[in-house]
Amino acid sequence: MSGACFTVLVPTPRFEKAIAAAAAKRHQTLAADLLRLRDDAGIARAQLARESGVDLRYLARIEQGAQAPSMATYQRLATALGADLHTRIYPNAGPALRDRHQAPMLEVLLAPLHPRWTPFTELAVRRPSRGWIDLGLHDATASAFLATELQSELRRLEQLIRWSAEKAASLPSWDGWSRLGDEPVISRLLVVRRTRATREIASAFERQLRVAYPAHPGDALAALTGTAIWPGPSLLWVVLDGKRSRIVAER
pTM for the full model? Predict the structure, then answer.
């Protein structure tokens, strides 16, 4: 008998750690909500256990934040308390997924970088927006910090621009921010893989990109290689072509 063949994908440790932390925080919030509602209603824990059909000892562990019950159990408890349970998935600061082109793009970007720039990869920001910034570049001399995003495709351009700005504004919540010394000025750099598809999208939405990234690419590249000061939010292109991979400073 033949069966279906499945590929097992193993998430990265960083991804698993982030998921575990977010899930634990969510369960703690729900536990605090249950305890507050029960106290406000003047209902004893044993009474809530009977009404909801949830084991008393299990309920105690839930309220202590030591147990992660199913959504059905939360619904039982909420219904017994006369409360509503709402869950939803909403957009934040962009997906955590990565593609196979980002690593070689990063290599191309770092190769000509002047020593005055200190790179930081995979920066986790938490507030007011949560997400990951692909690369941070710090110039201590000019007190500048670039929130850099690497994109091999340009899908939902308006969302990409918004997410990039939100994550850049959230940089002070990055764990390494306090170790930079004098607080630098935050700017943004978008690095896009140069393909026919991405060039067509950029051409179609040229005005939006110029508003979001107004500095000339040539000035940005000159700043990264050490011959000029950082000009402000910029867009650079990367051509991936084996040993001939390179940065292209054009609009």
Answer: 0.67
